[in-house]
Design a protein that fits this description.
The chain has about 300 residues and is mainly β. Helices cover about 0% and strands about 55% of the residues. It is built from no helices and 16 strands. It is elongated, with a radius of gyration of 22 Å. The relative contact order is 0.12.
Length: about 300
């Protein structure tokens, strides 16, 4: 979870926690394919840790191909079991219980992949997600219209339904157009749209560049209101701008090198990709992201 801020400094978005944080998130995945039966099974385990939470995740997946291998259906089960450290704003710590609380997430995903022709392939996605437990952020302040203040309070359950479609079209041997659209709805009243395009360009058989762009737009949650616009009698309340109405864009480029003979003299090290992206949100949040992806096979 991250909190956006407006162009003006809002005391609600200032956390009493440290302004610096390090996230560590190792993961391991395994997949076995049976080409004769046309199916594949997989499993994964992941751990994510920051100063205020620990998340342990795991999942199972199953995929089945049609006889002509032009169609594939898939089912994926995933869960995240989180432990949240309760860090309250310093002026609101008196009389509150410290310690930790749990937050659990359960995902059930379905996919349908279809090859239309030699150049065009589409993928349809449906995810059902359910969360339970402590879903608020304890360090988020809320200021009411009478100038009193409290910490954020949100329901302890949340149901999410994202539906999406992804397509790839081969313009030739060197250029691919990849498009993606997703509609999202949840039980907190958020409706969102995501549109994304990537354009991988193969410079040589072993080196490619990938410009990419993503646009996102969402409505506000039922429980969101800005600074000093909530009423004390409200059952739930938040001023976290992640739950506000906003739009954002993310643009960048990636550089990828592959070699079936291995990279840097390591035979099983066959892919390395460096990606850069610039994120800009209408609420004033701006970030630059650099990521490095390595593949061993």
């Amino acid at each position: 979870y991250t909190s956006a801020s407006s162009d003006k400094v809002n005391p609600n978005t200032v956390s009493s926690a440290s302004s610096q944080d390090v996230r560590v998130y190792p993961s391991i995945s395994w997949q076995r394919t049976d080409e004769k039966k046309g199916n594949a099974i997989g499993a994964n385990v992941a751990v994510s840790s920051e100063y205020d939470y620990l998340s342990i995740g795991g999942g199972l997946s199953f995929y089945k191909n049609s006889k002509d291998n032009n169609r594939q259906v898939g089912v994926k089960l995933q869960t995240y079991q989180d432990v949240v450290t309760l860090i309250y704003p310093i002026e609101m710590r008196s009389g509150r219980d410290s310690g930790t609380k749990s937050r659990n997430t359960y995902n059930l995903g379905f996919t349908l992949s279809q090859i239309i022709n030699a150049r065009w392939q589409v993928l349809f996605l449906l995810d059902l997600a359910y969360q339970e437990g402590y879903l608020s952020l304890p360090f988020n302040r809320v200021y009411f219209d009478d100038t009193s203040a409290d910490i954020e309070k949100l329901p302890d359950t949340r149901f999410k339904i994202p539906v999406g479609v992804r397509g790839s079209y081969f313009l030739g041997d060197r250029v691919i157009i990849k498009g993606y659209y997703r509609y999202y709805h949840d039980s907190w009243g958020i409706d969102a749209h995501t549109a994304e395009v990537e354009l991988p360009i193969k410079i040589t058989p072993f080196f490619s560049i990938t410009p990419h762009y993503r646009y996102y737009n969402q409505t506000a949650a039922n429980y969101f209101a800005p600074y000093q616009q909530h009423q004390v009698q409200d059952k739930y309340y938040t001023s976290d701008y992640d739950l506000s109405s906003f739009s954002s864009s993310f643009a960048g480029i990636g550089f990828r090198v592959i070699s079936p003979e291995g990279l840097f003299g390591i035979q099983k090290f066959n892919s390395l990709e460096l990606r850069y992206g610039h994120y800009d949100r209408a609420t004033g949040l701006v970030s630059n992201i650099i990521s490095l992806h390595a593949r061993f096979k």
